[in-house]
Specification:
Heat Shock Protein 90; 2 domains; two-stranded antiparallel sheet; 8 helices; 68% helix
Length: 346
């Protein structure tokens, strides 16, 4: 850090001398000057250039205490201009007094007459440099403010997402135990078979628990196991047709397809006389469709009514797209946008 500061001061000194020499050549038209003139020129240039460079450090100190570009832009501009005018005036008049009055022994009347243009040009240079410093400072403050707000927003969304994610698995287990309880009353052998398959199935649930997305073919394989479990209970009364192409390179949220199938089973009558028919497909718009014939139960099971809402929230977070629900006449359809890797935020 110390070495970096020293290098910066050396660069500022060299640049100041070069600017002074360039100005002398432009004004005099030649580099043919006495050696002492070069020394005088270098000293004068350093006396102005180094304080001008130091203005950046001084403004950094001043900015931390008195400047707030985001919340008080108008007041901050006035404070910065005042600070810069006072500092610039002090440097310009002190340097010119030292070199022209003290070193060259000129009187004030001739000093102003011959150096008026020089002083005005130095004020202009200081103002230009200050404007650059203020612009950089303002945009840094603005960028940091935007970044902090975006970071806070991301953290808030991530927290909401985690809450939604954590609600899925207890919800599924609760419903599975309800199914098992029903089977025990209906058919003990089927209940035993269901328990064995549920144990295998729940191993997959735990494997997917902390994943944000999985391949479509994994989710289809997963929901196939779930459907097998449900058909132990409902037999031919539950008909599921999966016509989605497993080779499609899309991704989904774990248990999302299972949640939609479960939602259809939970809210509809299922019997041999009125079988529930569920179709899983991929639309031309690259969406995963789950559609079922609509035959609502007369007496609905107890539900928190958060399943589809949570799923929609998670998809909104990951893709910025909405999960669409269509209830029309005799069927109920949910459309999930398939996730592509470039769309994910995590």
């Amino acid at each position: 850090m110390r070495k970096h500061v020293i290098v910066n001061w050396l660069v500022a000194a060299i640049v100041s001398i070069l600017i002074g020499l360039t100005t002398t050549v432009l004004m005099g038209g030649s580099l043919k000057m006495p050696f002492m003139q070069y020394v005088w020129n270098a000293g004068y240039s350093l006396s102005l250039g180094l304080p001008l460079f130091a203005n950046g450090y001084l403004f950094g100190w001043f900015e931390k205490r008195y400047i707030d570009w985001v919340n008080q832009p108008g007041t901050s501009v006035l404070r910065a201009l005042f600070m810069h005018f006072v500092y610039s005036s002090f440097v310009i008049w002190t340097v010119n007094w030292f070199w022209f009055i003290y070193i060259m022994n000129r009187d004030w009347s001739s000093f102003w007459q011959y150096n008026r243009g020089t002083i005005i040009s130095e004020y202009i240079i200081f103002i230009i440099v200050a404007s650059i410093i203020y612009a950089i400072s303002f945009f840094k403050a603005w960028r940091n403010e935007v970044q902090q707000k975006e970071e806070a927003k991301r953290e808030s969304l991530a927290l909401q997402y985690k809450v939604l994610q954590d609600q899925i698995n207890p919800h599924f287990l609760f419903n599975s135990l309800n199914v098992l309880g029903s089977l025990i009353d209906m058919d003990v052998e089927k209940a035993k078979q269901f328990t064995r398959e549920l144990s295998k199935f729940y191993r997959d649930v735990l494997r997917f628990k902390d994943l944000d997305i999985i391949a479509l073919n994994e989710e289809i394989d997963f929901v196939t196991k779930y459907i097998y479990l449900q058909q132990i209970r409902f037999g031919e009364a539950l008909q599921v047709d999966i016509i989605a192409n497993e080779k499609i390179q899309g991704k989904v949220i774990p248990l999302s397809l299972q949640a939609l199938v479960e939602n259809a089973i939970k809210h509809n009558e299922i019997s041999k006389a009125n079988p529930l028919k569920i179709v899983v497909a991929i639309s031309d718009d690259y969406e995963l469709l789950v559609e079922n014939n609509l035959q609502p139960k007369k007496q609905l099971e107890e539900t928190s009514k958060t399943g589809l809402k949570n799923l929609a929230g998670r998809y909104q977070y990951l893709t910025g797209k909405e999960m669409r629900i269509l209830k029309n006449g005799g069927y109920f359809r949910v459309s999930l946008p398939l996730i592509r890797l470039e769309e994910t935020k995590i």
